[in-house]
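User: Study the shape:
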Amino acid sequence: MQALLSYDQSPPIAAPFRFFLTVPCFGILAGALLLWSGPGIFDSRWTPAALALTHLISAGFMLQAMLGAMIQILPVIVGANMLRPLRVAAIVHAAISLGALFLVAAFLSFSPALFKLAATFLGLGVAVFVGLAAHALHGIASTNSSSQGLKLALVGLTVTVGLGVLLTVSLGWSFNLPLILLAEIHLGWGFVAWGTVLLAAVGYVVVPMFQLTPAYPDWFGRRFAALALAVVSLWTLAEFGEMKFVAPVLGAAVVALAALFAVVTLNIQRRSKRARFDASQHYWRVAMLSALAACAVWLLARTVPAVGEWQGWPLLCGVLVLFGGFMSVIVGMLYKIVPFLIWLHLQNQGQGRVMAPNMKKVIAEREMDRQMLAHFSALALLQLAVFWPPLFVYPAGLALLVANGWLLRNLLSALSLYREHQRKIESVTRGQPPSGQ
């Protein structure tokens, strides 16, 4: 069943936009970190710079985009209106931004004080968001796949951040915890039970709406989120219980669920009614193909001894999942959600007296295409840097800087257009003709 969208329930545009505008800033920092750290960042997944880079994308780029999107879509898709969304957005955005920056600095310096600050700010920011989102969702029935997926994604977010805070607290206060095991479980919850479940819940609406595809299959929409949380939970119990035969099987099932979402999405995207793909569709396709490639690398590492013994396979998986998968799909969604929100809010403010600009004019198509090519170049160079760090780490860092700087420029140009049309609307409501007329 498709969600019935209630656009009149949209929060003020400033609520999600503060998150969206911060997204490329963390991408820029990731590029700068690659240039600063050099080839040593790819020595191991556990180097301080590699951990910092991972969390610039996961706790920075991804978390900003995902919480900003949830603030927007919870009232529109589910009818769950947060109390004082502007104030909530300001508090949560400040807390998670500072928390992510403290966490990155903590990994680079291994300062216990910074780990404590990171745990405090990230934990409080996400706790405020989850608490208020849960309060808004209380008593609202799950009438469609998106609403069910959003509720279960909140569970995934809670566990993911809870495990992350536990790891950070352990490093800050020197607790004796099984850090490697907790880190693996933290990754499983973050990438599948939180990230993929949320992406699917949003995708049920935005993919058919913006890419003119058929709807996701009913069997998939009804079962995917619940199955993902169930399998990840069972795998977690098996890992903690040291079930040496069961845990690998359940781990493979977790990876298979991510692959299933990618295959189903590619299948419906293949049947799009568009004559040619735009930047958003290309981003989605590359994201799904990257996810499948990451799943294939994981499977090879578990079944082929030569691959499993190669120290670079977790790094290659990380590049494919973070930069190829989540970063690509997030930019692709921003290029649809941002123009649509600007059009929607300006249309409402204009009240028929001043028409909102066409969505295609909010961000020029050529600018999206150029930024997309920069991003894909960065992705290719990052993959090459895993194999040959001295040759490719600096071009990869530079390309990542350019791609995210370009993304920030595109988003700021959209914001500038929004403010310009706001001024036109204000002049008309005061009885003056808009400028240029």
In short: The CA atoms of residues 30 and 53 lie 6 Å apart. The mean pLDDT is 91.
